[in-house]
Amino acid sequence: MEWVDTLRGLAIVLVLSLHASLALRRHGLEPWQPAVEFNEFFAPYRMAMLMLLSGLLLGSALRKPPHVYVLRKIGSLMWPYVLWTTIYGVAVNEAGVIHVPLWTGATYLWFLLFLFTYYLAGLALRRVPTAAVVLACFAVSLAAPDGTKYFERYFFLMGFFFLGAWLQQRPAWLQAPVLSAPKLLIPAAALALGLSVASVLGSGINYDARFLVPALAGIALLIAVAKSAPGSGWARGLSFVGRHSVVYFVVHYPVMYAAMALALGLGYRDEPGLIYTAALLTGVLVSSAMVVLRERAPFTEMLYSLPLSQQPRRQTVRPPVSVIDDMAPSSVFSESK
User: Fold this and answer.
1) Mean pLDDT score across all residues of the chain
2) Share of the chain above pLDDT 90, in %
3) 251-288 pLDDT per residue, tens
4) How far apart are CA 102 and CA 43, in angstroms?
5) What's phi and psi for 205, nearest 5 deg?
6) Cα–Cα distances in angstroms (integers) from residue 288 to residues 53, 84, 91, 112, 282, in the given order
7) Can you tell me the distance from the alpha carbon of 163 to that of 171, in angstroms, rounded to the nearest whole number?
8) Domain coordinates of the chain in residue numbers?
9) What's the pTM?
10) Going by C-beta distance under 8 Å and a sequence separation of 6 or more, which residues neighbour residue 7?
11) How far is the C-alpha of 95 from the C-alpha of 162, rounded, in Å?
């Protein structure tokens, strides 16, 4: 379904915008305020939506034998996590690769680590009703200390991952015309706008289960918008990013960091807006070039995945692996790896 790639591409672009802003702090500068407010406006939906889209594929993945399931998740999630954490440690982190927090999710790659553990949890909890898992995750997140990455954030996003799995079991819900009905979208838009404004005024609202209802309203609104715009120019662009999101996700940060270092070396320290924009564009362009290289030079696939326990390829042309969670662009509920 094209709208899934569109939303995934949107989430990745929002992640790149956030990192282009935050990377300024690693260079001793305050982020550009308009970018900060833009990122805070979308903060309640950015990673929650990406995790929900990832959870849509859990059911089809679980139909494979457990050893195949685990090996493929190691190849598609842990391998790029380890490889690009090493690159980050060498190129960006002052303490190098021996810094212990580096390997426990203290970089921009934490999403891969979380997602890998969610897939393992999905295997372990496959006989537990998915709705019960969703409720338990949000309850733990709500009870967790505020701002804790490995409690509040971890279980909040786990709730969205298993919510995606729950929706995968009910595909008609995502196709229901009522999702595009004004009587639903108008109050959803009001709730989402209120949450986004509160996020901007409150310096960011994210991973907070107290705002679960408006966050879900915002995601439902984004789904409706994406479903209504297939074939439009902006949707095609986002869909391209969505189909190749693993490349954009792992490549962008070291590129942005280097672009900022170059801008500062050229004397643009007092221009945070220019530095942010240049870093964001550089991250997008270099990541896009890496997508082209991936398609033309198959050996570069090693930068993004390992073919562990793959069955022999059929003699048909297939689109490239689209996302971090192995979702094929042609179908929401089919696995490509």
Assistant:
1) 89
2) 74
3) 999 999 999 999 999 989 889 999 999 999 999 999 99
4) 24
5) -120, 115
6) 22, 17, 20, 20, 10
7) 12
8) 2-303
9) 0.89
10) 49, 53, 222, 223, 226, 238, 242
11) 36
